[in-house]
């Protein structure tokens, strides 16, 4: 149940990416993947790589995923911006 709470929080935060410029690596799907992976990975790290069960899941469990989702989306955004700048300047870069 803890993993479900983490992923749902990541999904909820992902919805706010419509207010930002689309510079995500992979577009909106890249932001989606970054949010879900970030929230799940951060939740696992906080809980010592164990997933809380049904009776150990509380409201705080979902809140634990917020920093991970934001970090995941930020990394995907920064990579997308870097690739966009490399392509626009005519430099050699992977696109």
Q: What structural class is derived from the secondary structure elements?
A: mainly alpha
Look at the structure and give the mean pLDDT: 90
Oligomer: single chain
The SSE string, one letter per element, is: HHHH
Strand elements, count? 0
Number of helices: 4
Q: What is the first-to-last residue Cα distance? A: 38 Å
| Low confidence ranges | none
Description:
- This protein has 95 residues and is an all-alpha fold.
- It is built from 4 helices and no strands.
- The chain has helices spanning 2-14, 27-46, 59-63, 66-88.
- α1 runs antiparallel to α2 and α1 crosses α4.
- It is elongated, with a radius of gyration of 15 Å.
- The model has no long low-confidence stretch (mean pLDDT 90).
Overview in brief:
By secondary structure, the protein is mainly alpha-helical. The protein has 4 helices and no strands.
List the helices and strands and how they pair.
Layout: H1 2-14, H2 27-46, H3 59-63, H4 66-88
Task: Give short descriptive properties of this protein.
95 residues; 64% helix; single chain; mainly alpha
């Amino acid at each position: 149940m803890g993993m479900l709470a983490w992923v749902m929080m990541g999904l909820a935060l992902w919805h706010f990416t419509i207010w930002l410029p689309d510079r995500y690596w992979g577009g909106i799907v890249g932001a989606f993947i970054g949010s879900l992976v970030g929230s799940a990975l951060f939740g696992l790290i906080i809980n010592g790589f164990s997933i809380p069960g049904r009776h150990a899941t509380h409201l705080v469990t979902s809140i634990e995923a917020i920093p991970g989702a934001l970090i995941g989306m930020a990394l995907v955004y920064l990579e997308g911006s870097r690739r966009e700048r490399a392509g626009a300047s005519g430099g050699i870069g992977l696109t």
